[in-house]
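Researcher: Let's do a round of design. I'm pasting the structure tokens now; please hold your answer until I've finished.
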């Protein structure tokens, strides 16, 4: 792999997209659609400009930084005040809908892939449970859509990553234990240590780092332009410090963001500015790498069973659990279906599956799992990208801003 060619290509694509992004958005063509499509075009499936190994250090670094920044920003931008006043819908989605989705995804996988080990099928369900609000950006950023609906979708997307990740670690540890590659310590201890140490380190880094910024700002010591860099540094510091102290760096990044974004309003503002520019760049690069590196090596394992499961994952396996979780609320059916549909599979699934590849050491034995994730994400990029703005416009015409349902 020529990393310099990849970097040059990414720079050219960013330039091109920057020039025409507004025009493309009017055609309901999203950034993830463009970057994934160009990745496919330049991959061995297209004109074969360059090849990238999924487990290459270059890819791993991009993936880690992207996920760290996404988790940090998602947590920091959670509106806890709004969440306190309209907490019931996100709570239903996360604590009723999410577990049902995992169970339903596992049972459907057992039916479609009866020869696969149960742990692999649970892994598949977990990889496809987190949602990605970025693929429905037109929905969560459209002021015509009631704020509490946008917030509910955002909160679900921001928190389900953090809820799923410990479960993912548990299943990975179980699989490695079965293959004799696990840590010397028992997997329960390992997972508990990863979660607890990660959360503690992240909370401490986020809280102390932001308090230090408050002090520096009050003494007029920190230049405004450099204050935009401090949250980025806190996210990366939390990640690597937690990894050094036997915690999970991604969980640390999430908790660091949670404290940083809700400790000091100016920090939250800086993080929001970053998430809309540099943070989105890393996300788009991840979609490019997905199209360039991941899709070509998994395409050979795509079967009709893989396509069937992917279709079910994006529709009934997502939408029915959400509708069940919202049963008993005062929401009308169209609102339930609107929230249910906008559970795209994107950046979290891509990054988590690449982390799984890294942890497992190779793709051997999990080809079906990776093929399903590939097809599901590709379908989601296309269908949610094309439908986001039209459905947001249609929903907004039928529903004016109204108080959140907390009953």
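Researcher: That's everything. Go ahead.
Model: Designed sequence:
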């Amino acid at each position: 792999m020529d990393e310099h060619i990849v970097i040059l290509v990414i720079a050219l694509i960013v330039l091109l997209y920057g020039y025409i992004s507004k025009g493309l958005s009017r055609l309901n063509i999203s950034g993830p659609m463009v970057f994934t499509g160009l990745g496919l075009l330049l991959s061995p499936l297209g004109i074969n400009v360059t090849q990238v190994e999924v487990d290459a250090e270059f890819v791993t670094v991009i993936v880690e930084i992207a996920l760290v920044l996404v988790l940090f920003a998602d947590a920091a931008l959670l509106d806890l005040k709004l969440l306190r006043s309209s907490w019931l819908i996100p709570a239903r989605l996360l604590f009723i809908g999410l577990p049902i989705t995992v169970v339903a995804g596992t049972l459907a996988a057992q039916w479609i892939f009866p020869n696969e080990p149960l742990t692999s099928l649970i892994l598949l369900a977990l990889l496809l449970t987190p949602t990605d609000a970025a693929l429905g950006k037109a929905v969560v950023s459209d002021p015509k859509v009631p704020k509490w609906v946008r917030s509910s979708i955002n909160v679900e997307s921001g928190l389900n990553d953090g809820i799923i990740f410990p479960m993912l670690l548990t299943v990975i540890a179980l699989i490695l234990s079965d293959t004799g590659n696990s840590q010397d310590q028992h997997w329960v201890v390992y997972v508990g240590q990863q979660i607890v140490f990660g959360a503690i380190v992240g909370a401490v880094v986020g809280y102390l780092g932001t308090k230090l910024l408050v002090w520096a700002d009050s003494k007029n010591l920190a230049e405004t332009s450099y204050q935009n860099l401090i949250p980025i540094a806190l996210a990366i510091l939390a990640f690597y410090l937690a990894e050094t102290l036997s915690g999970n760096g991604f969980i640390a990044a999430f908790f660091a963001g949670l404290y940083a974004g809700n400790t000091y309003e100016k920090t939250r503002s800086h993080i929001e500015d970053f998430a809309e520019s540099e943070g989105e760049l890393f996300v788009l690069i991840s979609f490019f790498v997905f199209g360039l590196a991941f899709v070509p090596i998994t395409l050979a394992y795509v079967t009709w069973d893989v396509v069937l499961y992917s279709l079910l994952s994006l529709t009934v396996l997502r939408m029915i659990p959400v509708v069940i979780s919202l049963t008993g609320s005062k929401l009308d059916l169209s609102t339930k279906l609107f929230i249910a549909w906008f559970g795209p599979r994107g950046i979290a699934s891509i990054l988590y599956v690449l982390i799984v590849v890294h942890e497992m050491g190779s793709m051997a034995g999990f080809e079906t799992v990776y093929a399903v994730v590939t097809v599901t994400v590709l379908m989601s990029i296309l269908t949610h990208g094309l439908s986001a703005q039209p459905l947001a416009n249609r929903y907004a015409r039928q529903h004016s801003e109204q108080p959140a349902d907390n009953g």
